[in-house]
Amino acid sequence: MDDITGEKAFNITHNWLNLRTGDIDLVINSLKAGNLGTSGEVLKGHMDLENIGLLGHSLGGAASAEVAREREDVKAAIVIDGTMIGDITGLNSENREIITEEKFNKPLMLMYGSLFLDEKAKETSYLPNIKAYNNANSSAYSLCIKDSGHLNFTDLPRISPFLAKKLEVGTIDSFKCIKIVNDYTLAFFDKHIKGDGNSLLEGNKASEQVEFSKRIPGN
C-alpha cells in the first residue's frame, strides 16, 4: 500500500473497511435473530446484545470504531494500533484527506505501538484518531506501549518468533505487551459495558512502558 496513494488508496481501504463492518453487522444481527445453530445454544442467556463492546486490531479496529458510530447497541469501542479510516470521508482538491467533523459519542480507547511517538505519524497515519480523541463527546483514552510494533498486539511473536522478527515487532517482551493490552481492555469494558470501576483508567499505569492519557468531556 505504500506506493498506492490518493483516490486509489482511499477506495481500496474503504472497500476493505466495508467488508469488515458488514461482517460485524452480520454477526450481531444473527445473534439478535437467534441464528446460532446447535453449537450456539450455550450462549443463550449469557449475552446482553443491547450493550455490546467492540475491539479490533489494525483494520479490525477501524471497523469496530465505524460500527460503534453507526449502531446504538454498540456502546464502546477499542481501536488497537489502527487508523480510523472510516473517519476519512474523502479527498480535497489537493488530494489531502478530509476527516469527519462528526464527534465520536461512545467511549473510545485508542491503543498504539511506539510509532505513535513519531510526530510525523501523528500528522499523517494517526490524524483521524487524534481528531476523534480530541473531539470526543464521551470518555476517550489514549494508550501507547513503548518499544512495541504493530504485530506485538497479536500472538504472532509467540507462535512464530522468527517470522515476527522479519515484520513489525518491537523490543518489548511479547508476553508483557499482551498482558498490558489485556489489562487495559478489561478495565475499559468493565467500566463502560459492565459499569465497574478500575484504577487503570484513573491513570495508575500497568507498566512504565505505557504512556496513558484520557479525555473526559466536561472535566
Characterise the protein shown here:
The chain starts with 5 loop residues before the first helix and ends with a strand. The chain has helices at residues 6-33, 59-70, 119-123, 127-134, 156-159, 161-166, 174-194, and strands at 52-57, 74-80, 88-91, 97-99, 108-112, 140-145, 210-215. The strands form 2 sheets. It has a 5-stranded mixed β-sheet with strand order 1-2-5-6-7, with helices on both faces. Strands 3-4 form a two-stranded antiparallel ribbon. The protein contains 7 helices and 7 strands, in the order αβαββββααβαααβ. The longest helix is centred in the N-terminal third of the chain and has 28 residues, at 6-33. The mean pLDDT is 90. Helix 1 (6-33) packs across helix 2. The chain has 219 residues and is α/β, with parallel strands linked by helices.
Features:
single chain; 219 residues; alpha/beta; Rossmann fold; five-stranded mixed sheet; two-stranded antiparallel ribbon; 7 helices; 7 strands; 1-alkyl-2-acetylglycerophosphocholine esterase activity
